[in-house]
Structure formats: C-alpha cells, structure tokens
Design a protein that fits this description.
With about 160 residues, the chain is mostly helical. The chain contains five helices and no strands.
C-alpha cells in the first residue's frame, strides 16, 4: 500500500513540478512567455551533458554546452536590451536564478564585444602568450585558407 501511494505521489509531482529549477519565490509576470524557450534550452543542455564523449577531445565535449549557455544568455539579453519585451523584474529574476550569465551580458554591452562567444576567450591567463583567443582576431587579419576554431568553446570567429 505504501509503495503504490509513493508512486502515485511521485507521478503527481512530476506532472506539476516545473522543469526549470527555481527558488521558492514565484516568478514575476511574463515568465510564462519565456518559460517554453528556457525549458527547451535546458532540455538540450541535459541531452548534451548525458551524451557520450567517446572519440572527442575533452574540450570538444564541452563545446555544445558552451553554445547552449550562450544561447540562453543571448536570448534574455535580446529580449531585455534589444527588443525591450520583458520587464526588469523578470530579467533580474533570470539573472538571480542563474538562467543567464550576467558577466557575459555585461561584456556584450561594451563596444567591440557585442558578439563575444564566451568569457574564456577574452581572459588572457588561459592562453600561452597572454593574448586573447584566436576567435577574437578579425577575419580580415587572418589567412583566407586558415580554419579558425577556438579551443575553449569551438567558436569560429566572434570578433566580426
């Protein structure tokens, strides 16, 4: 009797619990508009985390995760700063809940960093010669036949 009650309660909760982990505070108005996109990106993230990384370099296994993280942050940045489609309360809620990366968004607001792929590409301590990543070099400065691929996140050029 107790086991069947537990299974029913578990299925009841799984049908009603949100897929996005949130605090106990209810989300602000407008959350229902962005929730499907956030949930879809979270599902993609979980799928890539569970994916096998056999035959890939260690850094290559993380590239899809960096890409999805960038997509979530860019989605909220565009909604708040470009289209002005969400409120400040909703934007702050998403930042507080770590749905978007506030440091990456802060970089996007600065001139020259509007298309930055990840923060590791501008951290000079992560490179051999204390310079920016190769993806930050403009395409006009590179050889035409040279294939550029960031070691950190797989970006093929975010400088423009």
């Amino acid at each position: 009797f107790k086991l069947s009650y537990y299974n029913e309660y578990k299925s009841y909760l799984s049908d009603r619990m949100p897929k996005v982990r949130r605090s106990r505070k209810p989300p602000p108005e407008g959350w229902e508009l962005i929730e499907p996109t956030i949930e879809e990106l979270d599902a993609k993230m979980r799928e890539h985390e569970a994916e096998s990384h056999e035959g890939k370099r260690i850094v290559e296994a993380l590239w899809p995760i960096f890409k999805i993280h960038h997509q979530k942050s860019r989605y909220l940045y565009d909604l708040y700063y470009k289209r002005k489609a969400i409120s400040k309360e909703l934007y702050d809620y998403c930042i507080k809940e770590k749905i978007a990366d506030p440091n990456l968004i802060a970089k996007w607001k600065k001139p020259g960093y509007e298309r930055l792929c990840c923060l590791r590409c501008v951290q000079v301590r992560d490179t051999n010669f204390n310079t920016n990543c190769i993806c930050r070099v403009p395409r006009s400065k590179l050889d035409k036949i040279q294939i550029v691929e960031c070691v950190h996140c797989g970006c093929r050029g975010c400088s423009g």
